[in-house]
Amino acid sequence: MQTSSDRHEYPSHWEADVVLRDGGTARIRPITVDDAERLVSFYEQVSDESKYYRFFAPYPRLSAKDVHRFTHHDFVDRVGLAATVGGEFIATVRYDRINADGRAASAPADEAEVAFLVQDAHQGRGVASALLEHIAAVARERDIRRFAAEVLPANTKMIKVFTDAGYQQKRHFEDGVVRLEFDLEPTDRSLAVQRAREQRAEARSVQRLLAPGSVAVIGAGRTPGGVGRSVLDNLRAAGFTGRLYAVNKALQEKELAGVPAHRSVRDIAEPVDLAVVAVPAPYVPEVVAECGEHGVQGIVVVSAGYAESGPAGRERQRALVRQARTYGMRIIGPNAFGIINTSPEVRLNASLAPEMPRPGRIGLFAQSGAIGIALLSRLHRRGGGVTGVTGVSTFVSSGNRADVSGNDVLQYWYDDPDTDVALMYLESIGNPRKFTRLARRTAAAKPLVVVQGARHAAAPQGHAVRATRLPHATVSALLRQAGVIRVDTITELVDAGLLLARQPLPAGPRVAILGNSESLGLLTFDACLAEGLRPLPPLDLTTAASADDFHRALTHALADDRCDIVVVTAIPAVGETSAQDAALAKALRSASASAPAKPVLVVHVELGGLAEALSAAASTAPQTASTVPGAGQTPRPAERPAAAVSASSQASPRLIPAYPAAERAVRALAEAVKYAQWRREVADPGKVPEYEDIDEKGAAEQIDEVLSRGSGLTLAPEAACVLLGRYGIDVHQARPAPTPDEAAAAARTLGYPVALKTTAPHLRHRADLGGVRLDLTDEAQLRRAYAELTDLFGTPEVLRPVVQGMAPRGVDTVVRAVIDPAAGAVLSFGLAGAASELLGDTAHRLVPVTDRDASSLVRSIRTAPLLFGWRGSAPVDTAALEELMLRVSRLVDDHPEVVAVSLEPVVVAPRGLSVLGATVRLARAPVRDDLGPRTLPVV
Questions:
Q1: How do strand 243-247 and strand 214-218 relate by DSSP bridges?
Q2: Helix-strand-coil split of the chain, %, nearest 5
Q3: What is the rounded distance in angstroms from the CA atom of residue 372 to the CA atom of residue 353?
Q4: Are strands 510-515 and 534-535 parallel, antiparallel or unpaired?
Q5: Which secondary-structure segment (H or E) carries 786?
Q6: SS3 per residue for 624-652
Q7: Cα separation of 579 and 577, whole Å?
């Protein structure tokens, strides 16, 4: 329990766990009066040189006055933070608010002096950079806008911490000291620096788990078959290249199954990098403490009995993560299946998988152990419909993912040279906003295929998930916007992964089809049309076609500029032999080599021999430097080929994926086509336009004035129109009509023709129920319509009728924006009406929306042809519609207090548009944790 200092309560929300540059973790928290002994102990371990750099003079020890000053803070004008490992300080940072003369001050002074001290043993780990991010966030919260720091010129490490942070800086030299001043407002560069550091640190933390130099299996028993013993045997069978230890309190012998055995990790003389924990849950805390004290870097907990078992287990899981992070360790699990790394330099099978997968270029992540087994099995099999010899680079089964999650693994895969395609099975997304950001970056470098389980049910009990109000279809659309290849089943996951691992990305949707079965060719043709591809008429080679006939036909198709992809269909001849299978496979591989930039797929029927022959000549294992053109020049991730197959390489035969059904092959192909198109588009993502008529300041003042009266408010129609008008969004005026006479007066003011409509919640935007009367050209028609509505639906008090001037005819649409607590701001678009709502025909984009996003948003709904002149109708002004969406996007992006906007209907005419209804909801801005300092999820 922390004790608060001077004036304010202890700010527990400043506590955070962070991943450091080397992949270890540290705890950052405020310094309190309880920390006097820790501070003195920490200072004694700092070198004289570091002390000199901090105080500009020899300063061998802290006086009692110093200790009091450095541990007593008011958490407003004087704040100190410490980075801790194992409960002990490894670094400190402090700010003191100052005035223009450099003297101690209070608000409204908005400048503070900042100083760091890092223990020498922990310098170079990125501790100071992490502390700077957190102390800057604290300062901004306390209305401090600028930091000043005085540094000796010889203290180059600390100068680099400040200059590399990415803030706007001023630097000058006086009296032998470098004085740095920098604004604390985040910049694009500071955010980019922060995210780059985050990526390197989190990737390194996963790399330490997947490539350990030594592994201890804790809970390995004498009798084969137990969980711990199975993991130990699997590590031995895989040929793990590092040191391996068996640990069990009950062991008396010095060796178990040929592996050195110990009763405790403490008894191991050498360092242990990774511990696999397979003991009952009640004994895990003791094991974690022993690991932490021994300096173990990471833990895989296969033990069950945690959050998946209920509330008590959930609390046990939280305590586990807190304990591990105290020692700077990361955890995979609990309830994990394990991890695998097939690299020849590692050969790690720290999992319950009894067989090591073949080495290859596919990375696998599964939250479920059962699904992980299924994925490994399907990739391992040579037959069963999908060709086999496609290997795995790394495999992670995270179990309850209490600490290491899919986000961390994405950070690792992003620049992992051994992984070219990433396959993920997710049952929940703990941080959708971050996952989307990381997925977009990863997908720009290599394909990312995701299947999401538990789509229509709650996440598994063991998973901590942020609440989201978005339906699954919306989340799926947002993932696709980020370049994720979304599939529905693990069969489709493997199908798409094999294609992307073995073939180049298609240049377009044009498909050539050839084969020895007319029927199979027609099925493939129909499947292509159903998936939105553009197939050419199938070429039937007849059942008498030989391997040479296939070779000639495929060579000719690949040379045809009218096609981007070739699908080969094949059925067995009577008496087909394995030799003929091998000849056909050799012919197809040889022909495909003539056009390495075009993908080739095979649809086969009961041709196990052909499927194996197509794959047997090569594997997707990394090529050696001697066989790869330009070896020694490692490309950046974004420049690396999208397909792991290295189709352009002349050194090894080309792998061709084979599928047992046309629908499966074409579905995988369609996903590859869409992904390739996304890759081309993401190179030019567009821009967020600037509009000179936007009154951002006026909107902010209006929002602040409204929220001063409370939060969670829906603006009155007039106020909503004013706010929207500040962003150039004009809402068609509507006047209340509580009586027929007032309706007539409103119509005279607006001018005929007019519309009379109800605004009652149960009738609003429901023209199909008859609550709207249009094109009323005079007062008589208006009064008659008024009487009809009240006779049908009730009194004016219930109906809340309004009169509105008629807008030009067009297509009725809906534009909405909402702030989701998990995913962030989302812009949605669709046509108005029950039919679109029933079909779920709505498109979504994350805010801020670019001009390219707006254009694709308009065109991505199934009913989009109605906007472009369907069946002879006049095309409407989609440019005006795109501009409207961009302005709405700017509004919610500039003002996060605008948590919901609904424009319905928006009538888009051949020239211009009319917004006939608008609703705006305000609330206090939700916390944007993606813009704050780096931190691990709170447990």
A1: parallel
A2: 40, 20, 40
A3: 9
A4: parallel
A5: helix 779-793
A6: CCCCCCCCCCCCCHHHCCCCCCCCCCCCC
A7: 5
3 state SS of 291 = helix
Each residue's pLDDT tens digit, 409-435: 999 999 999 999 999 999 878 778 888
Distance of CA 143 to the CA centre of its chain: 31
**DSSP letters of 28-42?**
EEE--GGGHHHHHHH
| Closest to 392 in 3D by CA, of 417, 421, 412, 414 | 421
Q: Which of 670, 621, 711, 778 is nearest to 921 (CA)?
A: 711
CA 410 to CA 675: how far, in whole Å? 18
CA distances from 772 to 210, 791, 812 (A): 64, 14, 14
CA distance 792 to 803: 18
Q: What is the C-alpha radius of gyration for the chain, rounded to an integer number of angstroms?
A: 32
Give the residue from 73, 149, 79, 144 showing the smallest Cα distance to 107: 144
How far, in Å, CA of 336 to CA of 372, rounded? Answer: 10
Cβ neighbours, 10 Å, residue 61: 10
Confirm if 597 and 561 have CB atoms less than 8 A apart: no
Q: Report yes or no on whether pTM surpasses 0.90.
A: no
pLDDT tens for 16-25 read: 999 999 999 9
Strand ranges, E, within 187-341: 214-218, 243-247, 255-256, 259-262, 274-277, 298-301, 330-332, 338-341
Closest CA to 407 of 421, 393, 390, 424: 424
Q: What's the farthest any 2 CA atoms get from each other in the chain? A: 103
Q: Going by DSSP bridges, is the β-strand pair 534-535/146-151 parallel, antiparallel, or unpaired?
A: unpaired
CB 738 within 8 A of CB 801: yes
pLDDT < 50 regions, the chain: 1, 4-5, 382-388, 463, 617-652
